[in-house]
Design a protein that fits this description.
239 residues; alpha/beta; Rossmann fold; 2 domains; six-stranded parallel beta sheet; two-stranded antiparallel sheet; 10 helices; 10 strands; 15% strand; globular; HAD_2; Phosphoglycolate phosphatase, putative (AFU_orthologue AFUA_7G00760)
């Protein structure tokens, strides 16, 4: 039976943003802590787990905290704000949809399946990228969920992004009050997405082409896996 709702992750699933994130993280360090630049491999390790910006920057800080002009080098709000400002200028142009993204979304919409996005990324950046690449309007904007729409600390894999944010919006848009176990398909590339699927009673479609750590993701035994985004259409047909 076809899923009654399909939720997509964004980074590493619909859009290839690894270069954008890596560049923006390094430029943020250049701006706030120019004496230290994290390596791409260190950044990729965190991206592969779906870590949000504040956790990424905290984990990437030098082992010995450094002060700049008497100010602690790590202030979460400053780092995240600076990163998002830099990303909007330098990262956004590097963010590209994976081949077949538009075809996939249009095909699923034509099947009458409600579509949503839940990302730990800033929702403004998600919507901007969709618009810039001709994908705006395919998914109802009310059903695109990201920062700062989560309660504090309740991003994926915590289920509240679904239960407390998306579900009320689905009720408003479609009149849907809930879903039974296995009626939702979560499409994502990292262990965060697979665990999120488990936490909301959804089936997981793992995007092997994305940014996730293969060993970690395989251990969680997602219900399906795809090597290209277009393959999600076959997964849906087989459910």
């Amino acid at each position: 039976m076809a899923p009654k709702l399909i939720i997509f992750d964004f980074d590493g699933t619909l859009f290839d943003s690894l270069s954008a994130i890596t560049t923006s993280v390094q430029l943020t360090f250049n701006a706030l802590l120019p004496s230290y630049t994290p390596t791409p491999s260190d950044i990729h390790r965190l991206v592969s787990r779906g870590a949000p910006p504040e956790i990424t920057f905290m984990a990437l800080q030098p082992q010995s905290p450094v002060s700049v002009d008497g100010v602690d080098a790590f202030d979460e709000e400053t780092w995240v704000r600076t990163y998002r400002q830099i990303y909007s200028v330098h990262g956004h142009p590097l963010t590209k949809p994976y081949p077949g993204a538009k075809e996939v979304l249009l095909s699923l919409r034509e099947k009458g399946i409600p579509l949503a996005i839940i990302s730990n990324k800033a929702v403004a950046a998600v919507k901007s990228a969709l618009e810039s690449h001709g994908l705006g309007g395919i998914i109802n904007e009310e059903l695109i969920i990201g920062e700062p729409m989560f309660a504090s600390g309740k991003r994926k894999p915590h289920p509240e992004g679904f239960t407390e944010v998306l579900l009320p919006r689905l009720k408003s848009v479609y009149g849907t009050v809930g879903y039974d176990e296995g009626e939702v398909l979560m499409v994502g590339d990292t262990i965060t997405d697979i665990l999120f699927a488990k936490n909301i009673g959804a089936k997981a479609c793992w995007c092997r082409f994305g940014q996730g750590n293969r060993e970690e993701c395989e251990k969680e035994s997602p219900e399906s896996g795809i090597d290209e985004l277009i393959d999600v259409l076959g997964v849906v047909d087989e459910l």
